[in-house]
Amino acid sequence: MDDQTRNTEQSFKLKWISEPLLKLFKKVTPAMSQTEREAIDAGTVWWDGDLFSGKPKWKKLLAVPPSKLSAEEQAYIDGPVEQLCKMLDDWKITNEDYDLPKEVWQFIKDNGFMSMIIPKKYGGLDYTNLAHSAVVMKIATRSISAAVTVMVPNSLGPGKLIMEYGTQQQKDHYLPRLAKGQEVPCFALTAPDAGSDAGAIPDYGIVCKQDFDGKKNVMGIKLTWNKRYITLGPVATILGLAFKLYDPDHLMGDKDNLGITLALIPTDHPGVHIGRRHMPLNMVFMNGPNWGKDVFIPMDWIIGGPDRVGQGWRMLMECLSDGRSISLPALSVGAGKLCSRVVGGYARVRRQFKMPIGRFEGVEEALARIAGITYMLDAARTLTLSGLDMGEKPSVISAIVKYHLTEGMRQIINDAMDVQGGAGICLGPRNTIGRIYQSLPISITVEGANILTRSMIIFGQGAIRSHPYIFQEMEAMAELDHKVSLTKFDRAFTAHVYFVIRNLGRSLFHGLTGGHLIPTPGHGVTRRYYQKLTRMSSAFAFVSDVALMTLGGSLKRREKLSGRLGDVLSELYLASAVLKRFEDQGRPKEDIPLLRWSCDRCLYNIQTALDGFLKNMPYRPVMYVLRWLVFPWGRCFMQPSDKLGHQVANIILTPSATRDRLTVGMFAPTDMDEPIGRLEDALQKVVRAEPIEKRLRQGTRGFDAGIGGMDALIDKGVAESIISKDEAKTLRDAEAARSDVIQVDDFPFNLGKET
Questions:
Q1: CA distances (Å), origin 529, targets 522, 542, 570
Q2: Residue 690 among the catalytic residues
Q3: At the top level of CATH, which class does the domain 317-453 belong to?
């Protein structure tokens, strides 16, 4: 084909196909607000892009180097973090003092817990994201109140914002003071009328001139705001504030509305009202409101100075992923590790009907979820941290881990409470999970409510940001030059059409063959999981495109449908993380039950979400065609089997290297004055005594111990030489340890309160 013929065909295609389509797309595509645009522009596309492609490059994922703690970071966790955990008495903090002790506050400040992200040249620790996560996770297994206190200054707050966007003067002044604990930061975003819709904040500032600090006619801002739910607010010395800035007198230019802007305000500045507290479900970390009316600040208090006016929302979106990707996942995984160790041990020690409760199938089912979900959550945590430590800022993945890890924590804690029963609901020093149960709504609510995150953000943002062509098409539509817009749109749309056709073919072929012909980097137990996930990635990519083509902008409002597609993307990511973890840890044979349970669960959830989406599509003919293309032989994925669940539950019922690997990183005291220390001691003694007790009961069958109970049975066994005196001591030691750890705290009638 010569150049003239090719140019003619291209002109025809542009005029009669691409241009009408461009006009149609502009007409049906809903308008995007500036805050939505900035949220979508923020961050980077990483493994989520591969999952949206329909053909994930598994070798690319496996080549990602797993993050590792440096010798300095490990020493910090083994030293100051361990020491801090030992200083914490969570019952006293939450039930008596309603605050961390003064010596704990000072220890946190003196040992850099508030400066893990600050560069060393400013006096900070400058640790990796993995270390940041490991510190928060370990503290969370001791005290959620202390963990929140530590995590907030290292996620979304003045420190992060100053590091990324502050002027050099702001960095030189504030960062050393934050690193030394001389300043305690908080950041005020949420308002009574702007929670999830933070872009609609009513707080405002007016550009004006006023005398300030002995100077005449200083250019500045008169601020009025009312914020709530601000963590560290009651004790903060420096307040980060988000507000909308207006310039009605045009002192800075022609625009009236300058956009969302961020500022730093010392909390002792005249007009700042701060110090009152909220009471977040007995977690008692410092949290409270602040407000001000017509408070004047100079322009150089804006984070980044006047050049950053109106850029606040972008700045927040680019920094928000830290709280979603690091802090909240660390809390969630910490809860999972604690429950795996504590509840697994308790279920082996606690007995009913002369057998450990963990051996009852109903309890075993809950234990399997606790262990399996913990394994999966930790895999997602570490994979996400690897991406962050590579320099990625995966906004879609941060939403995935925020939602699914906090929801996973909810499932784990609810199962743990079911297993522990009365011991879980009666608060006291012995109860290690009660306060975590109370904290569940906090993690579910902060950094974007979970309902919103699932139904609007994961797929709503992912479809635009992670899809290989939709964002290009939207950018083309936004071009002001029609010729440039048409050319870019034609290029992106043509590639998009081929992309849809390829995924249609892949979905049908992989569905008909069960994915058996897909080449994979895995072998043995992982091979089929790579194939099944690739098949589901193709199906997801194809169904997503069909949904966008048939539903268009209305899909944004159909949050149930969008939520289900978000579930598919999320489960693909979680399963990817599990496979990556298994490979990174050297494919330990003992972890295969955890791997299989997690992947089977993810595949079943993917199938359920896709099936739910198809059943609820408004266009029935399209639904029937899609169902046949995606599931030509029907639904084929099953939930983890009972046999597999038994193997997973047994991991946390039995002391082993696998149990230790699953719970590594938690605070696990061995002191006998600690509930966990006593439980671990009892578990070891009970496991050691079980074969002796079995032999004793078989040898004394028919003997009625009566009111003498176990002691009488042991005496009978010794008298008849069924067991030795040493074995009798082993049994009595186990019984004493068992009896101690199943006790529940009780208090005086007035619960120890003064009348």
A1: 9, 20, 16
A2: no
A3: mainly alpha
